[in-house]
Sequence to fold (266 residues):
Amino acid sequence: MEIAESSFRYRSRRSDEELRERLVELARRKPRFGYRRLHILLSSSGERVNHKRVFRVYREAGLAVRRKARKRLVREGSARRALTAANQEWAVDFAHDAIAGGRAIRVLSVVDECTRECLALEVDTSFASRRVTRALEAILEEREKPLAIRCDNGPEFTSRHFLAWCIDRGIELVHIQPGKPQQNGYVESFHGKLRDECLNVSWFENLWDARRKIAAWRREFNEERPHSALQYATPAEFARQLLSSSGSALRATPEEGALSQSANVV
Fold:
């Protein structure tokens, strides 16, 4: 490779001091601006400077903006319980759809992870945490309280009201790790069936129509639809079988919730 000696040993004799002073001046006025915004300010003032040169001088002058690392709530996965009775653990989550007018609706799903029964399908345009607890209170009027509720980290499930409600009723709250919906796999699987068999094949004229059709599908799911994970029994039939075999399917003791094999770790 042949190259001129003058080019090989070339060192720029151009001084960056003036540019450095100008960048420092701008950085003092706009301390949270990075080099790109400072370069735009320079250009808008009529100074033509290559952005790469601005970046080099910017770094040499120690003007890089220090970014504070975001504090993230770390939730660690835990071994899943081997469910042996109803009301050991409920899974809660939201599905989304829209009515004919284009308005979005949300569907609150509550599923018993052992019997696979759908305990509630509440439909509304929005859900605050108090609306969620009202739906859960309606279920508790007919069933024993669960030992635990599994949910994601949405604002409805991390609010002070929802946390206090669980504490007052002695219900363990199990939050899955962010970005890992598979840790709430029972309700995610249920949502697949809900969307495939109800939401995608239904036309909702209004909110009332959506509530009526989704409630009818819930009854069909619990009482008529064979469930492959339950040896093709319906969730209602399986719950009755569980009740007759165990003597009580309404409440399980913590000892019955023994840890499952390591394959079930999420």
